[in-house]
Amino acid sequence: MTFVSLGRVAVIRVVLVLCSCGARGLTECGRPAILLLMPTILLILGWRFYFYSNERNEPIHIHCSKADAEAKYWLDVEAYEIGEAYAYGMSPADRRTVRSIIFQHFDYIVTEWNRFQELKND
Hints:
Elements: E1 4-6, E2 9-19, E3 33-44, E4 47-50, E5 61-66, E6 69-76, E7 81-88, H1 92-104, H2 106-121
Antiparallel strand pairs: 1-2, 2-3, 3-4, 4-5, 5-6, 6-7
């Protein structure tokens, strides 16, 4: 596993190399290849909060996992609300804990989401 630091975003896994035109690996079009990453932005109470870089055109959301539990939450910035997209292997207490963590770090998650999207588009 490769660890790389991009400011406050801790990147823990390199997923794929793509050219901005969509070609995999080394590019023939002359454009530089970019690394698609899975940045972890928070580790709290054993919960890992992260983004997938290959989810195109989806609104702001965060993934989280701990042991066999995992979930995805949508963030509505204008309404300052979150919605559960899915949750597997999570107790009601786990759901409350994760929602609380997301609300406590709502602005940070939104900032890091926007920052990560800018990095992907460069």
